[in-house]
Design a protein that fits this description.
The chain has helices at about 5-20, 50-65, 85-110, 130-145, 150-160; strands at about 20-25, 30-35, 40-45. It contains 5 helices and 3 strands. The protein is mainly alpha-helical.
Amino acid sequence: MHQYQDLIKVFNKCFLQAYNTQLLKGDSEPIYLPANQNVPYNTVYFAYGYFASALHECSHWLIAGAERRKLVDFGYWYEPDGRTPAQQALFLRVEVKPQALEWVLATASRFHFRISLDNLQGAAISDEHFKQAVYNQVKMYCEQGLPKRAELFRRALCEFYNTCPYLEINHFDYAIL
């Protein structure tokens, strides 16, 4: 059974001291809040205690550069569920890398990854192109390696969940998407 508390423990062990950043269970909407005069830590909040939400929000933080990590929610816009086809296409373009990294982290955690279009009430849009783009990004991560913080976290998850420490494309099956 996957407990979000375990993910918090692993993340905070990796990043609380070195990056002044903590992972915490939030409420309905995930959000990243940089440290400020009232809160001395950067905080990645994930929704409702969902393990998948925690992995996804960690992925956004792990990809964000130093300047983006100074901004609330990394400076990204977010259109809620019910996006138009044009809004959804833009949303999916910026979600390829985070979802690919989420899949890598889920695999390291022995957790089933599900691709997310995050638009249940919006206009119907084919997801095959997005699935292929996410898979291609995973292949690129396997060939070129992960960003430094992402690799540190992936290896810590591999150690915690006793999974294979090697990042290889044969660990990822396109058919599950």
